[in-house]
Amino acid sequence: MFQVDLNCDLGESFGRFKLGEQEEILKYITSANIACGFHSGDPSVMRETVKMAISNGVKIGAHPGLPDLNGFGRREMAITPQEGYDMVVYQIGALQGFLATFNEKMQHVKPHGALYNMAAKDPHLAEAIAQAVYDISPSLILFGLSGSELTKAGEKIGLRTAHEVFADRTYQQDGSLTSRSQKDAMITDHEQSAAQVVKMAREGKVVSQQKTEVSLRADTVCIHGDGKHALLFAKYLKESLEQNNITIAAISNWEEASYGKY
């Protein structure tokens, strides 16, 4: 049986700045990564996003990022592993406060943007982030780029770890994502996007920009909620997965034996 979790970055509005159609996207996903105020989001947006996710039966995770509102957390910063640890603990705690008011448990933690990409390559930062998640609760699931230093660190410390792939991003032959600074980093055609995800879910492979097949694990698939056609992507992707007999379910509902098929 093939199965995937569908996750989306949400709660990334703040103040008068509104981003995405999250109320509609929640109808098509199984896990929500909610911004915790550093790269985006504010207390009122966090509360409202938690409320909407619960009402749609969507599992909730923290989406901690670098403290960079102007750059949306997508610009690298020179931080120490200890600073990375502290940032992640702080932001998880902020979201946990709102979850407590709804008597809801947190499912996972997924770093955002530059913090995510830095941890994918830097083993020391990856270990600090994994330690932060583990210290708050060993039952939390750590989301990280498939085959990255972050997923390795999560597995090493004993966390349930979900290897993440991307619906709307292209890949390099080493399994990394194509840098957003390159014009071919994003996939804008929803049919191409869905075909890539189906191949990753069923075969555990993706075709890189260098036209080579790269092996990876596809536990959870990311849909970017700030994309221009995010809602169309989400709807079409869900339909394509179902048509290809791929079950869509929140990762906390999987049996642990289902992890690591590839």
UniProtKB/TrEMBL annotation:
<keyword id="KW-0378">Hydrolase</keyword>
<keyword id="KW-0067">ATP-binding</keyword>
<comment type="similarity">
    <text>Belongs to the LamB/PxpA family.</text>
</comment>
<dbReference type="InterPro" id="IPR005501">
    <property type="entry name" value="LamB/YcsF/PxpA-like"/>
</dbReference>
<dbReference type="GO" id="GO:0017168">
    <property type="term" value="F:5-oxoprolinase (ATP-hydrolyzing) activity"/>
</dbReference>
<protein>
    <recommendedName>
        <fullName>5-oxoprolinase subunit A</fullName>
        <ecNumber>3.5.2.9</ecNumber>
    </recommendedName>
</protein>
<dbReference type="InterPro" id="IPR011330">
    <property type="entry name" value="Glyco_hydro/deAcase_b/a-brl"/>
</dbReference>
<comment type="function">
    <text>Catalyzes the cleavage of 5-oxoproline to form L-glutamate coupled to the hydrolysis of ATP to ADP and inorganic phosphate.</text>
</comment>
<keyword id="KW-0547">Nucleotide-binding</keyword>
<comment type="subunit">
    <text>Forms a complex composed of PxpA, PxpB and PxpC.</text>
</comment>
<dbReference type="Pfam" id="PF03746">
    <property type="entry name" value="LamB_YcsF"/>
</dbReference>
<dbReference type="GO" id="GO:0005524">
    <property type="term" value="F:ATP binding"/>
</dbReference>
<dbReference type="GO" id="GO:0005975">
    <property type="term" value="P:carbohydrate metabolic process"/>
</dbReference>
